[in-house]
Amino acid sequence: SISKGANLKGANLYEASLEGIYLVSANLKNVNLEGAKLRDANLKGANLKGANLYEASLEGANLDGAIFCKTTMPDGQFKNSGC
Q1: 3-class SS at 41?
Q2: Burial category of 70 from C-beta neighbours within 10 Å (exposed 0-12, middle 13-18, buried 19 and up)
Q3: Cα separation, 78 vs 17, whole angstroms
Q4: Rounded CA gap, 80 and 71, in Å?
Q5: What is the mean pLDDT of each run of 10 residues along the chain (83 residues)?
Q6: Contact (CB, 8 A) for 42 and 60
Q7: Exposure letters 34-56 (e unless 16+ CB within 10 A, then b)
């Protein structure tokens, strides 16, 4: 498991299988998570600015306090609540 505050800035995790992963307070800025499987992932407080979550599965994922700005959500819409 990845530790709290992991820095994955700019990583390409296209269609990655990340079910149940622990990414609390992680830097996921500009990460490509298109089609990723994030079921039950803990993304509490993660920086998702510029991240691509298009068609990612987020069932049961904890996104409490996550930062969204120019973030592409699974449905293709942008979320800018943290800009």
Answers
A1: coil
A2: middle
A3: 23
A4: 7
A5: 81 97 95 98 97 98 98 98 95
A6: no
A7: bbbbbbebbbbbbbbbbbbbbeb
Distances (CA, A) of 35 to 4, 20, 27, 75, 83: 23, 16, 19, 11, 24
With 0.85 as the threshold, say if the pTM is over it.
yes
Alpha carbons 69 and 72: distance in angstroms, whole number: 9
Contacts of 36 (CB under 8 A, 6+ apart): 13, 14, 15, 16, 17, 18, 53, 56, 57
Q: Who contacts 65 (Cβ-Cβ below 8 Å, separation ≥6)? A: 44, 45
